[in-house]
Amino acid sequence: MVPEPLTAPRLHRPGPGTVPALTALWTAVTRAGGAVGFVPDSTDEEIAAAAREVVDEVRAGRQELLTVGEPLAGVVFLRRGAGPRIAHRADVLRLMVHPDRQGEGLGRVLLDAAVARGRELGLDLLLLSARGGTGLPAFYTRLGWTEVGVFPAALDLGPDDRRDEHWFQLRLG
Ligand SMILES: CC(C)(COP(=O)(O)OP(=O)(O)OC[C@H]1O[C@@H](n2cnc3c(N)ncnc32)[C@H](O)[C@@H]1OP(=O)(O)O)[C@@H](O)C(=O)NCCC(=O)NCCS
Q1: Second-level CATH architecture of 62-171
Q2: Which of 52, 94, 113, 156 is the most exposed place for a label (fewest CB within 10 A)?
Q3: Where is the N-acetyltransferase domain (predicted)?
Q4: Domain residue extents for the chain
Q5: 96 CB near ligand 1 (under 6 Å)
Q6: How far is the CA of 109 from the centre of ligand 1 (A)?
């Protein structure tokens, strides 16, 4: 049997270490300017509360978590549409790679894993949004996603900093 590469993402079942590890990763990404729901001066407690909340979502089966690395180097979440009209699709959420590990290909590997998981679940469509004024729209375009629209000034990053929200989709067909 060919050994699994060390960087292969895994579907993560939350344990006692999940919240602290996710909090540490999310905080490092945020402090480095990452665009995952926060701004660099968001408080530790805000980020920790969000990590607890999202891990509860995973425990409840409403979201899936794919992780890479031990210690945790990157994550991505998949949230399937709830209800019959949108059960054929899922949102790809909170793709993040630790600042010390960015540029090694882990972002691509995690996104590919989310796509593979979407296919495994029999989904037709994946959706995600990205913060304007960053390299993220170019990142998703580069990885084959289609930009389908922009909500102008939809993200409030603080006084005088409203960013566009760029919406992307990928048909799994
Ligand atoms: C966005 C992010 C996940 C990318 O992960 P990464 O591991 O650094 O990216 P990779 O090394 O896998 O790069 C994959 C490709 O995208 C390109 N790329 C990476 N970051 C990019 C950026 N900001 N802008 C444009 N292209 C980018 C790389 O050059 C590479 O292309 P190539 O293979 O053709 O050379 C990572 O930078 C990150 O965690 N950022 C902070 C969190 C964040 O903002 N997440 C977005 C949520 S929507």
Answers
A1: 3-Layer(aba) Sandwich (3.40)
A2: 156
A3: 17-173
A4: 62-171
A5: yes
A6: 10
Q: Decide whether any atom of ligand 1 lies within 6 Å of the 95 Cβ.
A: yes
Which 3 state secondary structure label does DSSP give 24?
helix
142 Cα to the center of ligand 1, angstroms: 9
**Ligand 1 centroid, distance to 16 Cα (angstroms):** 29
In the sheet with 162-171, reading across from the earlier edge strand, the strands are: 10-11, 64-68, 74-80, 89-97, 125-131, 162-171, 146-156
